[in-house]
Write a structure and sequence with these properties.
Blueprint lengths: L1 E4 L3 H14 L18 H8 L5 E2 L5 E4 L3
Antiparallel strand pairs: 1-3, 2-3
Amino acid sequence: MKITENKDKDIVKMIRDGLAETGGYCPCRRERTPDTKCMCKEFREQIKDPNYEGYCHCLLYYKSLKD
């Protein structure tokens, strides 16, 4: 398993700028709770799933099944 940032630098910049504005909370979520702090609970749960491969909700991170 490997976690990487999105290869699209424009998306990364947009999300990183949003994280800076929200104090580290997912800019794609309205609520500001510990569950929406980056790296959000949803993606942490997806990381635990041995069969999941894909992006987090805001497209900042990608979980690959291969190293």
